[in-house]
């Protein structure tokens, strides 16, 4: 087993799996089985698959929460994570303090305020810096978790069914925010998004299916057929 991880300072974030397998301790069956794929372009990449197919395990391997049993994972990216339920991710009482928690630089007070304003503006929460978390809707909380990744300079965000608990308008808002971020050529940004909502696939730049612990080839949404 080998895992290689580097931090990308500039350029396009990318992740590559080479013959990666994973099984839980004491289990012979592989959850991830000799998996090979590469994400080497910015954009919104989506994965679909049935429950138990290995989708969430794949994200945990990319994020370093799990170590592969075999194979090589190359990560040239600053990786962040957005969970299905934002309440499991938000720790502080208001938007400003939550974003302060995620700033990983030694900045002046003015620069911190500017950075917070920019992050909130990017996710459609301009002016929300003093808002209490308990006053936010589910969609606003999810947008705040995205802002937290942006303010910590993440350029490759893993998104595990981020719209599953949101109403239809909030689902659309989160989709459009992420899609917009991936189109910003000055700040290369990639999102890997797990979904069960087939209607979301039309927003993707590439789609693949997770099945039996392996990932299919990447396809354009209009060519993709879910088996």
Automatic annotation (TrEMBL):
<protein>
    <submittedName>
        <fullName>Possible ABC transporter, ATP-binding component</fullName>
    </submittedName>
</protein>
<feature type="domain" description="ABC transporter">
    <location>
        <begin position="15"/>
        <end position="227"/>
    </location>
</feature>
<dbReference type="GO" id="GO:0005524">
    <property type="term" value="F:ATP binding"/>
</dbReference>
<keyword id="KW-0547">Nucleotide-binding</keyword>
<dbReference type="InterPro" id="IPR017871">
    <property type="entry name" value="ABC_transporter-like_CS"/>
</dbReference>
<dbReference type="InterPro" id="IPR027417">
    <property type="entry name" value="P-loop_NTPase"/>
</dbReference>
<dbReference type="GO" id="GO:0022857">
    <property type="term" value="F:transmembrane transporter activity"/>
</dbReference>
<dbReference type="GO" id="GO:0016020">
    <property type="term" value="C:membrane"/>
</dbReference>
<keyword id="KW-0067">ATP-binding</keyword>
<dbReference type="InterPro" id="IPR015856">
    <property type="entry name" value="ABC_transpr_CbiO/EcfA_su"/>
</dbReference>
<dbReference type="GO" id="GO:0016887">
    <property type="term" value="F:ATP hydrolysis activity"/>
</dbReference>
<dbReference type="InterPro" id="IPR003439">
    <property type="entry name" value="ABC_transporter-like_ATP-bd"/>
</dbReference>
<dbReference type="Pfam" id="PF00005">
    <property type="entry name" value="ABC_tran"/>
</dbReference>
<dbReference type="InterPro" id="IPR050334">
    <property type="entry name" value="Molybdenum_import_ModC"/>
</dbReference>
<keyword id="KW-0813">Transport</keyword>
<dbReference type="InterPro" id="IPR003593">
    <property type="entry name" value="AAA+_ATPase"/>
</dbReference>
């Amino acid at each position: 087993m080998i895992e290689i991880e580097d931090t990308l300072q500039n350029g396009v974030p990318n992740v590559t799996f080479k013959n990666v397998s994973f099984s839980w301790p004491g289990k012979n069956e592989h959850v991830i089985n000799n998996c090979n794929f590469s994400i080497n372009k910015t954009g919104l990449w989506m994965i679909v698959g049935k429950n138990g197919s290995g989708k969430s395990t794949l994200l945990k391997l990319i994020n370093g929460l799990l170590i592969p049993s075999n194979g090589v994972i190359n990560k040239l990216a600053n990786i962040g994570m957005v969970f299905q339920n934002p309440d499991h991710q938000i720790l502080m009482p208001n938007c400003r303090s939550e974003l302060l928690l995620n700033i990983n630089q030694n900045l002046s007070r003015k620069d911190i305020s500017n950075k917070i304003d920019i992050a909130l503006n990017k996710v459609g929460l301009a002016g929300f810096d003093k808002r209490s978390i308990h006053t936010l809707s589910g969609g606003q909380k999810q947008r705040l978790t995205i802002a937290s990744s942006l303010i910590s300079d993440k350029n490759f965000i893993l998104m595990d069914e981020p719209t599953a608990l949101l109403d239809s308008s909030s689902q659309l808002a989160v989709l459009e925010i992420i899609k917009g971020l991936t189109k910003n050529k000055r700040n290369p940004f990639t999102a890997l998004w797990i979904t069960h909502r087939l209607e979301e696939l039309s927003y993707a730049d590439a789609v693949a299916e997770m099945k039996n612990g392996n990932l299919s080839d990447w396809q354009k949404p209009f060519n993709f057929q879910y088996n």
